[in-house]
Amino acid sequence: MNVAAIFQLNSFHVIQDPTNLNRVNDDFYIYNDIKILPLYETPTRLETTVVSICLNGYTRVSINMQEYFIGPGTMMIAVPDQIIQSLEVSDEYQGVFMVVSKDYTDEIFPKVKVMLPIYFYTKEYPCINIKGQELNTIMEYYNMLWERTKRENESNKDVIQSLLVALLYEVYAIYRNRIPRKKEARNRKEMLFDQFMRHLSEHYKQERSVNYYAKELFLTPKHLSSVVKEVSGKTAGEWIDNFVLFEAKSLLKSSQKNIQEIADELNFANQSFFGKYFKHYTGMSPKEYRRK
Q1: Which of 123, 148, 178 is the last residue of a domain?
Q2: Which segments of the chain are extended strands (E)?
Q3: For the chain, what is the domain count?
Q4: Domain that holds residue 207
Q5: For residue range 63-112, what is the model confidence (pLDDT) as tens digits?
Q6: Which residue among 29, 242, 256, 288 is the one 20 to 30 A from 220 at the CA level?
Q7: Is the pTM of this model over 0.70?
Q8: Contact 62, 43 (CB under 8 A)
Q9: Is the separation of the CB atoms in 80 and 49 below 8 Å?
Q10: 3-state secondary structure (DSSP) of residue 48
């Protein structure tokens, strides 16, 4: 029995009008028709936060070059700067979607004390299975947000933000129950990691040196690398290389730019240096990767 049928048996009303898309300016979109969602057939870097729940059928997506199978009851959360690609959507797929702009997320960020743990959880586990009361709770928020976006009054934006904040706490509780945190005392280190990631997402095309980011954060390169490794499991250098390689792969697959232009965009001295760098980490040349 699919999830939608379970909702009907429980007299749980799930809005199913695929002709409507509700929105708040260009900051928040909510809908239940996957045809409205851009299907990224090539690797594409997100500029928004996307929350989706599969109710029926299945889809396969790639997030940061890792493939995920999304079936009924799977919640997917993709955040800005992740690279996403749609690989397959079944004919019977049904789901619900919420899309939040980066600016709107920045407004909400200070109101959610657990935002950093949520960020780390969803980065590592973008897809998680939910069921029973967890699924009902998330869908209740979805329905409330759907109804609220239809209204037009001065307090509407504040109400929607409050609902999103509450929803994020529910998401945090789900992740917290499934994925134990290692140490609560890591808050300061997690904040440093978040600052590093923010700087990296803005400057990775120009700067690939750990020294640069350490200087920006008033840290020694050794201390920065130690903190980043402890919090994320990867060194600062590995994160820098990941960002550069994700962008390189995306440009090779989804743009018409030649390899010299891509090398220039990523601030390599020349095409040869870019080719050696790319092959060192992927085992193939940029041309070979593009043909593949």
Answers
A1: 178
A2: 21-24, 28-31, 44-45, 48-56, 59-63, 66-70, 74-78, 83-89, 94-101, 127-129
A3: 2
A4: 185-291
A5: 988 899 999 999 999 988 788 888 999 999 999 999 998 878 877 876 77
A6: 242
A7: no
A8: yes
A9: yes
A10: strand
